[in-house]
Amino acid sequence: MIWRKYSIDTTVEAEEILAAFLMEELGIEGVEFSDQRGITEEEAKTMFVDLYPEGDDSIEDATLSFYVEVLSKEDKERRKEEVEKAFSDPLVDHSYTLNSSNIFTEEECDEILRALREELENMSSYCNIGKGTITQSETEDKDWMNAWHDFFHSFAVGDFFICPSWEEIPKEAEGKILLSVDPGTTFGTGQHETTKLCLQALGKYGKGKERVLDLGTGSGILGIAALKLGAKEVFATDLDPLCEGAVEENLLKNTLSKDQMTLFIGNILGQEKEEQAFRKSCEEKPFSLVLANILAPVIIALAPEVPKFLEEGGIFIASGILEEKAEEVRKTLKAVKEWEILEELQEGEWHAFICRKKAYSKN
Q1: Quick one: which of 53, 96, 174, 185 is 20 to 30 A from 89 by CA?
Q2: What pLDDT, in 10s, does the model give residues 97-112?
Q3: Pairs from 110-114 (Cβ < 8 Å, separation ≥ 24)
């Protein structure tokens, strides 16, 4: 897919008029202002900083920019359907829902430019529009992925050492379980606190767990870590179809077979026919370990359901829980008779819970 930036060289006098036209008449969601103006007293009241940026109100030049994602008509319709489906389900974690703003076809982009040039010409009769020129630049997904090379470097997390493919494995990786993971268009590199908490818990509780269910797999990093710990097979779920390519690539980077991880695109708590069938298969052949690095509302919804997917004595590692939601999740887990909370981990403002399914419980 292509991401495109349009920039208009204009003036301070015209930028707000243009912004209103873009948003109200052309359906653009969000614009970017760039000028030399200082901060007004009213603006200063809303900014919680010690030093305000200095400006020069004598400079009239300004740049107004907006961003669009360019898709074919078919892909645009497909994206719209996927987003509508995701937002219709209250149990879906919308933090990673596909983009639904500023999506246009090439033909629609051409029409936006035509209308914008016409508006600039009309505006020139009653205000100073400056140069009034429009420039564009664009990038593809592969360019975003390559940009990670500048700041994603190898690091250790508990028993694991995470190293991107473009770096040599350093000496400090000796004695650690190596995970080769490259960032891409899906979530999960191990750098985020929530993933670190999961990896720490996996190192302690994941050894010897032969069948693993990874809910919200993203890049597949947690499922891969479970395989490196000796799991025979991993079943993984995610809502984002882009995960398929990312998971397969990361499996190969770790000299693992793609057959070792079965990926299901969908919501395990969803009501679609395929989702219900997958959920039933998980209940019929339960797992020894379930991972969920998602968000608190989803974990709360999963709490009474996950015991159905676990064998007696099985482990549930739940992460992605912000500090302000931790108590609610804790109470929810304690209210489920099947759960015994073994441990609660914290890093920064994020929490993770490790639970065991009580051996005497019945589904």
Answers
A1: 185
A2: 566 788 999 999 999 9
A3: 112/26, 112/28, 112/68, 113/6
* Strands (E) located in the chain: 2-11, 32-35, 61-70, 103-104, 133-140, 155-157, 160-163, 177-180, 211-215, 233-238, 261-265, 287-293, 310-322, 339-347, 350-357
Nearest to 134 by CA among 120, 151, 150: 120
Q: Which two tokens stand for residue 168?
A: 């040599």
Q: Which residues contact 44 (CB under 8 A, 6 or more apart)?
A: 52
The continuous run of DSSP H or E covering 120 comes out as helix 106-123
Contacts of 233 (CB under 8 A, 6+ apart): 210, 211, 212, 260, 261, 262
Report the C-alpha gap between 329 and 360 in whole angstroms.
23
What is the per-residue pLDDT across 331-341, written as a single tens digit (0 to 9) for each?
999 999 999 99
**Which position has the token pair 């205000």?**
127
Place of tokens 């930036």: 5
Q: Which two tokens stand for residue 249?
A: 């690539």
Radius of gyration of the chain (CA): 25
Q: How far apart are CA 51 and CA 212, in angstroms?
A: 51
Q: Running DSSP on this structure, what letter comes out for residue 218?
A: T
Q: What is the 3-state secondary structure (H, E, C) of 76-97?
A: HHHHHHHHHHHHCCCCCCHHHC
Instruction: Tell me the backbone φ, ψ of residue 45, rounded to 5 degrees.
Output: -65, -25
Tokens linked to 247: 């998971």
Residue 53 has pLDDT above 90, yes or no: no
**Which alpha helices (DSSP H) does 218-261 contain, by range?**
221-228, 243-253
Extended strands (E) in 131-182 = 133-140, 155-157, 160-163, 177-180
Which has the closest alpha carbon to 165: 289, 254, 277?
254
Write b or e for each residue in 139-151: b if 16 or more Cβ atoms lie within 10 A of its Cβ, otherwise e: eeeeeeeeeeeee
Question: Coil, strand, or helix at residue 119?
Answer: helix
